[in-house]
Amino acid sequence: MKSRWLIPALIAVAIALPWCFYDWGHHRHAGFLLSMLSQMGMMVILALSYNMLLGQAGLFSLCHATFFGIGGYATVHLLNAVGAGDLPVPMELMPLLAGLSGLALAILFGAMATKQRATAFAMITLGISELMATAALMFHHFFGGEGGVTTNRMIENSLFGLTYASGLQVYYLILAWTVLATGLMYYLTLTPLGRMANATRDNFERAQFIGYDPRMVRFLQFALSGFFAGIGGGLYAITYEIVTFDALAAPLSANALLMAYIGGTTVFGGPILGAILITLLQSGVSLLSNSWLVYVGVMFIAMVIFAPTGLAGIIKAHGPIRHSGRLGSLVVPYLRLVIPSLGLLLGFVGIVELMSFLTIGAAQGRKLVLFGGPVDVHAALPWVISCGSLILGALWLRIEAAGFHRIWENLTAEVRR
Amino acid sequence: METVLISVLNGLVYGMLLFMLASGLTLIFSMMGVLNFAHASIYMLGAYLAFTVSRFVGFFPALIIAPILCGLIGAAIEIWGLRRVHHNGHIAELLFTFGLVFIIQRLVQMTWGMLPMAYRVPASLDFPLFVLYGANFPAYRGFMLLVSAAMLLGTWLLLKKTRIGLIIQAALTHPQMVSSLGHNVPRVFTTVFAGGCLLAGLAGVIGGNYQTTEPGMADSMGPIVFVVVVFGGLGSLAGCFVASIIMGMIQTFAVVIDYSIADLLRPMGLMLTGDTLLTEVLTVPVARIGALLPFVMMVTILFFRPRGLMGTRDT
Fold it and tell me: What is the distance in angstroms between the Cα of B276 and the nearest Cα belonging to chain A?
């Protein structure tokens, strides 16, 4: 199978990537790339641990960032304690302690939240998230209020004698922990607990009849996902050396959900894909456009409606066709989808950008610049082009999608035979 | 005494506003099993639409037009969105409405900008209704109470005394049976969803100039409304009413109470000194933790009574 070499290859790429963009002229690493890769590592852990709830146990949680954040705050305080010489813990084990703090809080809140499932569970977690976010702004001793808590990661206490002064060393620490946490989470899906989580997700009454307590399964899954989220938070604190209210507020929980869902909740590796993609979008598109949240939101809703299995699910669906060697016959139908999709995309992006430059952009005093020239957002022409492209693209895509669907159905039927 | 009376009145106004939002949410939930995360976003949309409409035709026509627009938006969301994801289960529906929150939020920012709108109380209602111990009670708050009471009465009459209400109530508990009797249950669903959004829109129209009409209003209102719905018991209108009023009272009373736990301990001979996390928690006055109270209450009630105040069923 492909996956045998996929995992080592991914790790190798992750190790090599900072060196591919090494600036030999100035003998330094590309800072933007390193911070983006570090961010990806944390987000992979966050998304995977979130998927332990959403994908594997069918629990829609809205307080995942709480455990991420508490791991971050705990790490900052621990780092300060180590720096002051009160605590002999090497840097490499810091994320473990952060994970344990996440675990402790997840046990506390999990005992309440996992009494319920489905909608009521989602509501309780929303309450917990708001509770913690409000408390974080209120109690300055632990959370530092709006300014957050700062630390210094050069604590001179390392198993390997590293100082963690450079971003590269921190990145490799993050990479090591990401690989370790991912491996552990994958191992958990193979244990009886992971299997029972799937069973309670699919039919909790039957799981109950077999003699398992679904609530206990939910609780264990919740607590363990809190542990892994805490590890992610610990890495966050080490990287940025500051933890603010943002690390446990609702937008980060929503981000975890978006990454896990867009990547695909039904496949273990899906959230990894989602985390990498969303982080890329976040650091790429958010620099270019004010409205990247609209794009992510629309992408998310389109996924919920048209592809509930996420990107990884779509890729997985090609498996049987690839095995039979018929993947080639899908190339032309896919190519036929490209042009109308591009039209739709162009029209949509055009309208969104025009609208946002009309209001937000104007307030910021920015001008929309396309193809090297400024675009007058008050003129009719760009609006007409965008709307036309959107409508034409949508109609054309509808026809093409119907044709594609027919070919796809025929092909899967043939392959199955 | 005067602070108590004024706080009671203000709490009632805020509570009724909460109830307008929460009742629509509860109706939609008990009917379709869908918790509409975008409910507070519709509330925000109602306020913005009312601002725009009232600039052209004045406040009172906007009071009618904006909620209807919100109802139509709700119907469109139900027909083209929720119905399509319905067969994927409740989690998919929750996720769908959750995604809507982002989109509506940004659409509002893109259409009206990031700054607060100058959506003001209409001049005809901008006078003090009566003076209580030297403090004015604005006529607009009285008007808000009037509108929400009328809405409460209207919803109650519609649900209990009309044929439509009868079908809605029946579809709540026995959708298959109602469908077998020849009623179009999906259309009933659409009606209820649109109705809930209409109520949220109405709340937005009268709440938009009571609070401020700005892009953050959905985020600040949303969690409180969910707390109300869960506290009152998912799916119970009466519980929702009681919870709204309680929540309104708590929020307004918390602001005027300047005591902390440490003040309670002092007569018992316990004095707190030092500057640690514990003393900070104990000495923070109630007025400052007002924002925290709803969530503490929700977590507490769920711990002791998972169904909420008057809820009849688990989800």
Answer: 7
> What's the angle, vertex CA A29, arms to CA A26 and CA A35, rounded to 5?
145
Compare all CA atoms of chain A with the CA of B280 and give the residue at the minimum distance.
A139
Residue A352 tokens read as 């969104």
Q: What is the count of structural domains for chain B?
A: 1
Specify whether the CB–CB gap between B199 and B154 falls below 8 A.
no
- Of the candidates A131, A257, A356, the beta carbon closest to that of B299 is on A131
Nearest to A301 among B100, B223, B291 (CB): B100
Alpha helices of A191-269 — where are they, by DSSP H? 192-202, 204-210, 214-240, 250-263
The set of residues, in sequence order, having a beta carbon less than 8 Å from that of B220 and lying 6+ positions away, is none
What residue has token string 């627009």?
B69
Q: Are B221 and B43 within 8 A, CB to CB?
A: yes
CB atoms B315 and A130 under 8 Å: no
CA-to-CA distance for A203 and A200, rounded, in angstroms?
5
Residue B295 resides in a domain: no
Chain B residues 97-126 with CB within 8 Å of chain A: 98-100, 102-103, 105-107, 109-115
Distance from the Cα of B107 to chain A's closest Cα (Å) equals 8
Residues 75-134 of A with CB under 8 A from B: 112, 115-120, 122-124, 126-128, 130-131, 134
**Which parts of A28-119 are beta strand (E)?**
none
Residues B73, B94 contacting (CB under 8 angstroms)? no
- Domain residues for the domain of B141 are 2-257
**B303 within domain boundaries:** no
Q: Are B196 and B36 in contact (CB under 8 A)?
A: yes
Instruction: Indicate whether B264 belongs to any domain.
Output: no
Residue B275, in any domain of the structure: no
Pick from A58, A135, A293: which is nearest to B91 by CB?
A58
Residues B259 and B286 sit within 8 Å (Cβ to Cβ): yes
Nearest-Cα distance to chain A for B131, in Å, is: 35
A293–chain B Cβ distance below 8 A for any pair? yes
What CATH number is attached to the domain comprising B49? Answer: 1.10.3470
Is the Cβ of A58 closer than 8 Å to some Cβ of chain B? yes
- Alpha-carbon distance A27 to nearest alpha carbon in chain B (angstroms): 42
The alpha carbon dihedral of B119, B122, B127, B130 has a sign of negative
Contacts with B, A 334-393, CB within 8 Å: 352, 355-356, 358-360, 362-363
Instruction: Name the residue facing A297 among B99, B109, B230 (closest C-beta).
Output: B99
Buried residues in A291-313 as b, exposed as e (16+ CB within 10 A): bbbbbbbbbbbebbbeebbbbbb
Name the token pair of B174: 């026995």
Q: What is the token pair recorded at A48?
A: 């995977």
CA-closest candidate to residue B7, choices B286, B299, B296: B286
Per-residue pLDDT of chain A (417 residues; tens, 9 = 90+): 456 787 888 888 887 777 777 766 676 666 778 888 888 999 999 999 999 888 888 888 888 999 999 999 999 988 888 888 777 888 888 889 899 999 999 999 888 888 777 777 888 888 888 888 888 887 777 887 777 888 887 777 777 777 777 778 888 888 989 999 999 999 988 998 888 888 888 888 888 888 888 888 889 999 999 999 999 999 999 888 888 888 888 888 988 998 899 888 888 888 999 999 888 888 877 666 667 778 888 888 888 888 888 888 888 888 777 777 777 777 787 888 888 888 888 888 888 887 777 776 666 666 666 655 666 767 777 788 888 888 888 888 888 888 888 888 888 888 777
Evaluate whether ipTM surpasses 0.90: no
The neighbour count for residue A288, using CB atoms within 10 Å, is 9
Are the C-beta atoms of residues A133 and A248 closer than 8 Å to each other? Answer: yes
Of A138, A300, A356, the CB nearest to B99: A300
Residue type, B243: A
